[in-house]
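WARN  no MSA supplied for this record, continuing single-sequence
INFO  ligand: uridine 5'-triphosphate
INFO  echoing inputs
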Amino acid sequence: MIKKAVIPAAGLGTRFLPVTKAQPKEMLPIIDTPTIQYVVQECVDSGIEDILIISGKGKRSIEDHFDKNYELESRLLEKEDEALYTHLRHIESMANIHFIRQKELNGLGDAIYHARFHCEHEPFAVLLGDTIIDSVIPVTQQLIDLYEQYGQTVVAVETVPRENVSRYGIVGGKNLSSKVMQVNKLVEKPGPEKAPSNLAIAGRYILTPGIFRILEKTPRGKGNEIQLTDALQILLKEEGIFAALIEGKRYDIGNKMDFLKTTVEFALKRKEFAGEFEDFLRETVKKIDKAKSQSDEKPESAF
Ligand code: UTP
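INFO  complex generated
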């Protein structure tokens, strides 16, 4: 049984500056809900209610978000806004959330190493705090099911275009089915010519506690950071690792383009926005097409 999850959320979010200068990227809202709330919900929907968030400098608003806010709640009660009041009560009681601070940003491997006292004797889930995966069965639940079958570390993977492999940790190995691979190779951000496949690690893991012993000795790797993928390479030799092709769509909110796409796709799913927002999108597409056809018609300037 997997009972605990770790959510690393201490990173600087440099790809999303300047908004991340003074606020955590994990709190960037998809419409009205912070990214990390979707991540916590995935844990809860997968049966996990003990969550350790790896926090850091400038991340206090994450703690406040999952805490009780008496003033706001009593104001909502005065206004008789039952629905919002109930929603706020739900957020503060979603799970048992603990926090630990990563004082120096030494990378994802180091962030997970901070969970050693919380998870030292049992396997645990890891969910990146800036990544939402939209799926029918929560991806963490999909990984837990496989862990229960194989009893070894499981990483979620997705297919990515060959030309983009250098942005991800890439796995290679033997296919056990169309969805499960026994991993024999893991490479952090390889060039397309060195990548063992186009299967990228997708921000969700079930790790065995053996990872802590390895992380303790993992030297700095790519980007001068302690890379989780480097530690996983050693875990692979010692224990074995499985990769599960996720059934779901991954959104990396730390990347501006994904953030925009997520906002639009999630808004289209919300009944309250359906009509007006769809009309707005149709009008916008018409304007784009019109502007494009006008610029195509324009004779080329001689200068
Ligand atoms: P990223 O590599 O996407 O986060 O880590 P980052 O370093 O904040 O991003 P950029 O490249 O500067 O924009 C994925 C997750 O791991 C956490 C991040 O907060 C994010 O949720 N993380 C990363 C840590 O907790 N500690 C670290 O040292 C690095």
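The chain has a mean pLDDT of 94.
INFO  checksum written, moving to next record
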